[in-house]
Amino acid sequence: MSVTGVVLAGGRGTRLAPLTDRTSKQLLPVGGRALIERVIGKLVQAGVEDVLLVIDERHASQFMGLLEDGGGTDLRSLAYVWQPARGSGLPSAIRQVRHHLTGDKFLVACGDVLFEDGIKEAVDAFRVQESGARIITVRTPDTAGYSPLRIAGDRVLGIGDKDRELHTEGHIDLGYYLYHSEVFDLIDGLGPSDRGETEIWDLNRIYVSRRDMRCSIISGWWADVGESIETYRSVDGRYADAGV
C-alpha cells in the first residue's frame, strides 16, 4: 500500500531571522546539507517513494534549483504544490494537495522537524490501518508550549491545549501526521481559530472523538529546527559532529 509524502515547506521562518531574510528555513544548511534534504531523507528511509512539496512563490526557484525533479534524493517522484504566501494554518496547507494525490494514504511532515529515530514502523503500521489517522509522538520532560497527548497503548484518548505555564512530563506530537484522503472533507468543515487560522489540533481532535486516532512513539533526540537560532545551530553542530 503506497503512502505519499507531503512536506510542508512554506512559512516565513521569522524566528530564524536574519538567516531567513533571503531564503527559506528549509533551505538552510544542517551539517552540510539543506534541512529539506534531511527531512526528505527521513521519508525515503521509511519507504516513501513519492513526495509532494508544498511551497510558496517566495523561494520556489531556490527549492527547484536544489532539488530539481528529486533525482538526487532517491525518490521515485517529486512534485511541487503551491500555497498562498500568507498561510492560514496547517490544515489549509494540507488541503492544497487534495487534487494531486494518486493514492488514499499520505504522510504529512512539517519541513522543519528533525529527529534521531526512524519512522518506518509508523509508516508500515499505517499502510495496514484501514481507517482513521495516526500521529508520530515523542515523550518529553516538559510539555510546556506544546499540546500534551493522553494515550493508552497506541490509541490517542485526548489532546490538551497548549500551556506555556504547565511544565509536566508527557507525550507530544512530532509534527508528522498520517491520514487517509477522507481528511480533506474534515478540513473543509474546520473554522478558523481565534488567531484566524485552521488548527491541526482541531483536526486531530475529530479523530480522537471518534476513537480513531492512533499513535507511534519514537525515541532519541528531536528538534523543531525553526524554533530559534540557538536550536538551529545546535542541530547543525550535531550533524556536523556526526559527519552524516
TrEMBL record:
Pfam families: NTP_transferase. GO terms for molecular function: glucose-1-phosphate thymidylyltransferase activity; metal ion binding. It comes from the Bacteria. InterPro entries: G1P_thy_trans_s (IPR005907), NTP_transferase_dom (IPR005835), Nucleotide-diphossugar_trans (IPR029044). Keywords: Capsid protein, Magnesium, Metal-binding, Nucleotidyltransferase, Transferase, Virion. It catalyses: dTTP + alpha-D-glucose 1-phosphate + H(+) = dTDP-alpha-D-glucose + diphosphate. Residues 5-227 form the Nucleotidyl transferase domain. Its EC number is 2.7.7.24. Its cofactor is Mg(2+). Belongs to the glucose-1-phosphate thymidylyltransferase family. PANTHER family: GLUCOSE-1-PHOSPHATE THYMIDYLYLTRANSFERASE, GLUCOSE-1-PHOSPHATE THYMIDYLYLTRANSFERASE 1. This is Glucose-1-phosphate thymidylyltransferase. It comes from Actinomadura harenae.
